[in-house]
Design a protein that fits this description.
By secondary structure, this protein is mostly helical. It is built from 22 helices and no strands.
Length: 547
């Protein structure tokens, strides 16, 4: 366990990159008490998650799971939390590189500080990013998350992302966990479409959602490079203190105000990383829980009964909008409506009278059931899966229709937005214990294996030692960009933004770049999508045979 808390592998302290500044000492050994505390927190987290899982299932009246089903659920959760653990030491190392290389904090203090801020970022996150990842998955697999195909999907995309992350970490390359996960999602979508029987309807890759996510990920390096460089130039113009732009002197910490700024920006990046990256595993964990224990997790049973009248009212108003658009198309049964909408989502052909009639039928069925049971929390076990799927399909269909500019305006648009929000409130939620479990995995991961990436970001991107101003510019850019993306529910790459931000400050400062490292970073960036797509696709195809 030599990698925990100093907890990294066998790499040695890097040589100075230039000037008189010395690199930080990264070779400190971990006190046995630190290792003991690490495993104590890990065991406590596992016990906490297990206790809450069993409590939730009992409270909702979920029938006990067979031993095999419970073991499969445990394995899926372990892999999902393992992804977040790897994400912690792979991505968060970027956040601590600047405070370590400017001697603002000792390495162990930096990673513990970052781990705590990552934990808090996850716990207070909104969950918007969590479900933006889920919307990329094939609709039919999301609706049948508890099937063998659903488990094959979850295992394939998570294992592929973990393999790629560990491979790039072993090479010391700051690769993006977000990039790897999205590539894995696309790989599963492609494989699902290829493996589908001839003539069957399958949605494959949700390209309308995928493009918006890919744009955010692909432009992350450009944003980081340009914004950090411009911020550094602006700081040079506004703040004339020369100490800010000099290399650290030997092992001496920076002046107090500069040190406070660097520690604050490191905390901001760590907090923002937790709020954004920490959510990506949450949506997948919720799919796992919904598939294994639908009675407990398919619907948001924490919604207050007082919300029921509004939910029913907006459902009925949405039904009227759909009926007006259905023209003379006959209104199908709820079961037929479900099949029609699933097929239409796969083909992206929703703006048709018969689909509006199906949406009217689905909305009517949802409103009737919620009104009958009095509140979402009172929906019985046997009715839960269908109601959740109906709400998910209606929300997905509305979201796709709203992207057609000018299709709905005025009161119609307002009604459908309100209905989509109500549907999402009833199905897209994250229990507190899931947030805490993911936060622990990410926070503990931050304290393990961080050294390889820290060395690359801190000493191998630029030809000269990182200055205080460069570290602050890169961190401020990363914290602001990631925080803004979290507010809009977009998954972005902490790694890409921060490592390219460091490169941008080196370019703006005239420090020069180590092109061998930049080339390796670019190659990893370019290869991540095709590699993750291929790995996940092959794993999914193989697991479909086994499961």
């Amino acid at each position: 366990m030599s990698d925990a808390l100093s907890l990294t592998g066998s790499g040695s302290t890097p040589a100075p990159v230039g000037g008189s500044a010395r690199g930080p000492n990264l070779d400190g050994r971990t006190h046995p008490a630190g290792i003991g505390l690490f495993f104590l927190v890990l065991a406590g987290g596992v016990g906490y998650a297990l206790f809450n899982l069993i409590t939730d299932m009992q409270a909702a009246g979920q029938p006990p799971l067979a031993i095999g089903a419970f073991a499969l659920l445990g394995l899926a959760l372990l892999i999902a939390l393992g992804f977040e653990f790897v994400n912690g030491f792979h991505d968060t190392a970027n956040a601590v590189a600047t405070v370590i290389y400017t001697h603002s904090l000792p390495p162990v203090a930096a990673v513990v500080y970052s781990g705590v801020l990552n934990f808090l970022g996850v716990v207070v996150s909104t969950g918007a990013v969590a479900y933006s990842v889920v919307t990329l998955l094939p609709v039919e697999l999301v609706l049948k998350a508890g099937s063998s195909a659903g488990y094959a999907m979850i295992f394939a995309l998570l294992i592929a992302a973990i393999i790629w992350n560990l491979g790039t970490w072993a090479l010391g390359l700051p690769n993006s966990s977000s990039h790897a996960l999205i590539g894995s999602v696309l790989g599963v979508g492609f494989a699902n479409q290829i493996l589908a029987p001839e003539g069957s309807e399958t949605s494959g890759v949700q390209w309308d959602q995928a493009w918006s996510v890919l744009r955010a990920l692909l432009f992350s390096p450009v944003v980081g490079f340009v914004m950090a460089g411009l911020l550094l130039l602006a700081m040079r113009f506004v703040i004339r203190n020369r100490a800010l732009y000099r290399e650290p002197e030997a092992d001496a910490p920076p002046p107090l105000w500069i040190r406070a700024l660097l520690i604050l920006t490191c905390g901001g990046v760590s907090f923002a990383h937790g709020g954004n990256d920490g959510q990506k595993g949450m949506g997948l964990i919720m799919l796992i829980l919904i598939g294994a224990a639908p009675t407990a997790y398919a619907l948001n049973r924490t919604m207050a009964e007082s919300a029921t009248p509004h939910f029913v009212d907006v459902s009925e108003r949405a039904r009227s909008v759909f009926r007006d658009r259905a023209e003379q198309a006959p209104v199908p049964s709820a079961a037929d409506a479900r099949a029609q909408i699933t097929k239409a989502l796969g083909k992206k052909e929703l703006d048709r009278p018969e689909i509006y009639a199906a949406l009217a039928a689905l909305s009517d069925d949802v409103a009737t059931k919620v009104k009958e049971y009095g509140a979402i929390r009172h929906v019985p076990a046997e009715a839960t899966p269908n109601l959740r799927n109906d709400m998910f399909l209606a929300s997905d269909a509305i979201h796709s229709l709203e992207k057609r500019e000018g299709l709905f305006v005025g009161e119609e648009a307002k009604t459908l937005r309100a209905y989509e929000t109500s549907l999402n409130d009833g199905t897209r939620y994250i229990p507190t214990w899931v947030k805490v479990s993911v936060a622990l995995a990410l926070g503990l991961g931050t304290m393990v294996g961080w050294k390889r990436i820290v060395v690359t970001v801190g000493s191998r991107i630029g030809k000269k030692h990182l200055t205080y101003a460069q570290g602050a510019s890169a961190e401020i850019t990363a914290a602001g960009t990631i925080g803004l993306a979290e507010a809009y529910g977009l998954p972005v790459s902490t790694t890409h933004i921060l490592s390219s931000g460091v490169a941008g400050t080196m370019a703006a400062n005239g420090s020069g770049l180590q092109w061998a490292t930049v080339r390796n970073l670019a190659v990893a960036w370019l290869l991540t999508l095709p590699a993750a797509i291929t790995l996940a696709g092959l794993l999914y195809a193989g697991l479909r045979v086994v499961l």
